[in-house]
Specification:
- It is a single chain.
- The chain has 137 residues and is mainly beta.
- 0% of the residues lie in helices and 59% in strands.
- 22% of the residues are buried.
- The chain has a single domain, classed as Immunoglobulin-like (Sandwich), CATH 2.60.40.1470.
- It is elongated and about 50 Å long.
- Strands 4, 5, 6, 8 and 9 form a 5-stranded antiparallel sheet that branches. A 4-stranded antiparallel sheet has the order 1-2-3-7, with no helix packed on it.
Length: 137
């Protein structure tokens, strides 16, 4: 895992087997309750098929780490209730959210994909920061 102290960016990009995954995260103050120890982050993912084969996203696996180094893993079918099929050149974009018990964290993971010939492969979701804005009083 990348070191959170190295000031990671709230965006990431990875290309695996001709599938590009781009992520951008932002702090959601309207959904957060810092006084109760809950910071909420939104993230938007765009998956683009830059290859020649049609592919389908089957499942996701996220590794979420907060500033206290508490790690949570989340796996399941599809994303936001969908298992999108991407023909060559097509993209799929979705947004989701993640609560943390600290104002700083990091996420990374992978998607399991399938080709029309039945072969499966994993694509990388590169690490990106979850970082709340700080205020000084």
């Amino acid at each position: 895992m990348a070191d959170m102290r190295s000031d990671p960016a709230p965006l990431s990009e990875a290309l695996t087997e001709d599938i590009r995954v781009e992520v951008m995260s932002s702090y959601s103050p309207e959904n957060s309750r810092p006084l109760e120890g809950e910071w909420v982050f939104q993230y938007t993912v765009r998956i683009t098929n830059q290859g020649r084969d049609t592919v389908q996203l089957l499942s996701r696996h996220w590794v979420i780490t907060d500033a206290a180094e508490h790690v949570e893993e989340v796996s399941g079918p599809g994303v936001v209730g969908k298992q999108p099929v991407l023909a060559p050149g097509e993209s799929f974009k979705y947004s989701s959210w993640c609560p943390l018990k600290t104002p700083l964290g990091m996420m990374h993971g992978s998607y399991e994909m399938a080709r029309t010939d039945g072969s499966h492969f994993d694509i990388e979701i590169a690490p990106f920061a979850l970082r709340a804005r700080y205020t000084v009083h």
